[in-house]
Write a structure and sequence with these properties.
The protein is α/β, with parallel strands linked by helices. It has a single domain (5-191, 221-241), classed as NAD(P)-binding Rossmann-like Domain (Rossmann fold, 3-Layer(aba) Sandwich), CATH 3.40.50. It contains nine helices and seven strands, in the order αβαβαβαβαβαβαααβ. The chain has a seven-stranded parallel β-sheet, sandwiched between helices. Strand 4, helix 5 (107-135) and strand 5 form a beta-alpha-beta unit. The protein is globular and about 45 Å long. It starts with a helix and ends in a 7-residue tail after the last strand. The mean pLDDT is 96.
């Protein structure tokens, strides 16, 4: 086993596909993985994804697509493999978080949440997983949430979708581990992004919630990106089917 830090975290020659790669956590992931030498495939529904990829280097690919659209997912994965030859790491990062009280949750809100947060990761894991099986290995990280572990007010659809991500992660880890594919999840607390701390968790609501977190603050997107780097690095070869909770101790209390 190689114990050199530099070699364990060296991603030169690796191809990394990141969903939700235009901004927020996904953009931080893109910047960090590119810094470590990876070639990126960035996917987002926002055309800003082209700007993000271009800023990191001409070798990186960018696609605009709906993660819940099966044909789009299949096309993006196939075209990326055609152009780059392989996909070594998948970061299922794209997500939405519309909130509503349980009795006010519409079927439309439920369906949209499940489509992006659960169907999307399933489709990308399945399609990229097929390629990884052909290659003889790979690493997948699915973004879950502390909401997968505890109840949060107004988060019925979101909590259910993220709990589903954890269930999916465990099954994929069990089935694909023998094939050289490690599958893990990350469960952050609120993250300082437009969707998180700058959105529904801003103002008095956010300040009140911080008091429930032992560290007294929300997470930074860079911290989540670094967690993903660890789980996909050579240092984490025996970590499979795990859920790395990055919540400042919130779910421990």
């Amino acid at each position: 086993m190689e114990y050199s830090f530099d070699k364990a975290f060296d991603l030169n020659g690796e191809v990394v596909l990141i969903t939700g790669g235009a901004a927020g956590i996904g953009k931080c992931m893109a910047e960090l993985f590119a810094e470590r030498g990876a070639t990126l495939v960035l996917v987002d529904r926002n055309e800003e994804v082209y700007v993000t990829a271009r800023a990191l280097g001409s070798q990186h690919l960018a696609w605009v697509g709906d993660v819940a659209d099966e044909a789009s997912v299949q096309s993006i994965v196939a075209d990326s493999v055609d152009r780059l030859g392989r996909i070594d790491i998948l970061l299922n990062n794209a997500g939405v978080g519309p909130l509503a009280k349980a009795e006010e949750t519409s079927a439309e809100l439920w369906d949209i949440t499940m489509a992006v947060n659960l169907r999307g990761p399933f489709l990308y894991a399945r399609e990229v997983g097929k390629q990884m099986i052909k290659q003889g290995g790979g690493r997948i990280v699915n973004m879950a949430s502390q909401a997968a572990l505890v109840a949060l007010d107004g988060h019925l659809a979101y909590c259910a979708s993220k709990a589903g991500v954890l269930g999916m992660t465990r099954v994929l880890a069990m089935e694909w581990g023998p094939l050289g594919i490690g599958v893990n999840a990350i469960s952050p607390t609120v993250v300082e992004t437009k969707m998180g701390a700058q959105g529904s968790w801003s103002g008095e609501v956010g300040e009140a919630f911080k008091k429930k977190i032992p560290t007294g603050r929300f997470a930074q997107p860079e911290e989540i990106a670094l967690a993903a780097l660890y789980l996909t690095s050579g240092a984490a070869g025996m970590i499979n089917g795990a859920n790395l909770v990055v919540d400042g101790g919130y779910t421990a209390t």
